[in-house]
Amino acid sequence: MTTRTLHVQVPATSANLGSGFDAVGIALNYFNEIYFTEDDKEFISVEIEGLGKGEIPETFADNMVGQAMERAAAYNGESLPKGGAVKLVNRIPPGRGMGSSSSAIIGGILIGDALTGSKMSKEDMLSLATEIEGHPDNVAPALLGGLTISIMDGGKTMTNVVPVGDDLSFITVSPDVEVFTEDARAVLPKEIAYKDAVFNVSRVSFLVSSLVTKQYDRLQYGLQDKLHVPYRIGLIPGGESVLKAAEDAGALGATISGSGSTLIAFAVQNEQAIMEAMMNEFKIRGIDSEGHILKCWNEGAQILP
Question: Fewer CB near the terminus (10 Å): N or C of the chain?
Fold first, then answer.
């Protein structure tokens, strides 16, 4: 048989972005890669290289990439090949708020669609990914790239994409502490005060407009939040001190990435000093961490040659 290999690259993401809870996300130039090679076996195997090996399921039916491939094939009314090999090259840390699950979902959908006729539009992919993930703020930037602002309406996901230039850097620091999504959701209040809702509406509008107009000195105000950050920061040991250390070192603002435990700072200079200050705050508490100085990735997920 003629074998074919598909190679997909999916960017890391940072969602929520302070005031943009469940609506705003950004793609970052740090990637997971997924390979699929069709073969003449009667099953699809899964191999994991890098982060999550030994933790992420290596059975196709239980793996998130495999599940997303199946969902895309079903959407197209087709079946996946009977035999093949999936290889996951994972660099995005799992369970750290940088879009590891979204990269698996988007990568699986892209491969599943390509194997079954390439019938899905980007809008179809986004709606399916949102259905799988439950909210669009991570899957939208993973698929489309850039800064994404998303809404859900009647089961349909709509996203506006804003490119972000290389003049702005994003410093991510991921401590060796996992924050489970269910725990991050559990600490949120069931109701919020009207004034807090008004606070966030104004702040998220200010955040997006500050990014669009490149008034980066105003980002600290747009990142202010009363919906999730005050409740979740306590799940990250030393979290408040790390955010303060970032700002003291010159960051334009800092907040939780996704639901944590990664913290993200925004900067146009002093990036290395900011990253080291954040990592040091974790270190004095006996917590190892990994830091990266990243840029926005405006291309989104791609099937590579």
Answer: C
Residue positions forming the annotated binding site for ATP? 93-103
CATH of the domain at 151: 3.30.230.10
* CA 190 to each of CA 55, 81, 193, 206: distance values in angstroms, whole numbers, following the listed order: 32, 45, 11, 25
The domain that holds 278 is classified in CATH as 3.30.70.890
My answer on whether 130 and 180 are in the same domain is: no
Q: Cβ distance 120 to 109 under 8 Å?
A: yes
Do residues 15 and 153 both lie within one domain? yes
Band (2; pLDDT cuts 50, 70, 90): low
Domain containing 151 equals 5-162+297-304
pLDDT in tens, 270-299: 999 999 999 999 999 999 999 999 999 999
* Number of compact structural domains in the chain: 2
Minimal CA–CA distance to 285: which of 232, 216, 239?
Answer: 239
Task: Please indicate, yes or no, whether residues 156 and 175 belong to a single structural domain of this protein.
Answer: no
Binding residues: 93-103
Domain match, 9 and 158 both: yes
